[in-house]
Amino acid sequence: MKMPVIKRLVETQTLESLVAAEEALLEEQTPAFEVEGEDEGEQLTHVFAAIFILNHMKDTGADFKTALREYTAKVRVSIS
User: In the chain, which ranges are continuous DSSP H helix?
Assistant: First the structure.
């Protein structure tokens, strides 16, 4: 998971385009825009993170950094 990639997706893509990219990746297809990542798993992680962050920003009014911290906290909890 690379934070600069997630940030770029949040800044350049809409929620709808990210959801479409997520669906494409899940169906082993190529998204309509480039998603950086070493493999499809990392690409999917970046897209999923961007979707979470955009939704969190919309739902809570949080800024990007706060939403990113919330996402990384959830990842840490799921890993431990």
Answer: 3-12, 15-26, 40-60, 64-79
**8-39 per-residue burial string, b: 16 or more CB within 10 A, e: under 16:** bbbeebeeebbebbbebbeeeeebeeebebee
User: How far is the first Cα of the chain from the last one, in angstroms, to the nearest whole number?
Assistant: 17
Question: Which among 42, 29, 28 has a CA at the least distance from the CA of 9?
Answer: 42
> pLDDT tens for residues 10-51?
999 999 999 999 999 999 999 999 999 999 999 999 999 999
Question: Distance between CA 41 and CA 57 in Å, rounded?
Answer: 24
Residue 61 CB: number of other CB atoms within 10 A? 9
Tokens 């840490």, residue located: 76
Reading the block at residue 67, the tokens are 């939403």
